[in-house]
Amino acid sequence: MLGEALTFVGLSAVSGFVAAVAMTVPMATQEDGYTPAYIAAATLRRTTPEEVSTVVARLVHYGAGVVSGVLYAAAYAALSPLLPSTASAGSLDALPHALATAAVVGFVYVFFAHFVLPRAGTGVHEERSTAVRGQWLRSSLVFGATLVVVLPLVTWGL
């Protein structure tokens, strides 16, 4: 049982990484699309986004994807015993899977948009915050859509 739980957490983390990679597509196509990665890295390093290298921004972005995958596993584990088992998505119960995904996407969006972005400094936050938030929302939804598809595939048979 513990081995299965750890496997699920690991596969959820990998799925979070895959979802973070997938969300780089919309991030790359939007004007301020990759700005959130620079802002998050700058916030962690207590510097400005302009001082963050591309490598560090990507490491923080992909690391956040992995952490979000682990958060998904925790949310799914908490919701599964509370909700009725109706349909399934691979080895996952569909309702807890959908709600855990929505919770993680909501958390990722709100955490960045309302806690990280305001700490970015005056330039980005005051001048382009609405645009950055909107682009982050679209990218976060791609993250969620990827989790919805990838998690049932990688956890098939658990």
From TrEMBL:
List the transmembrane segments.
6-25, 55-78, 98-117, 137-156
Keyword tags = Membrane, Transmembrane, Transmembrane helix
Q: What is this protein called?
A: Uncharacterized protein
- Species of origin: Halogeometricum pallidum JCM 14848
Q: What is the lineage of its organism?
A: Archaea, Methanobacteriati, Methanobacteriota, Stenosarchaea group, Halobacteria
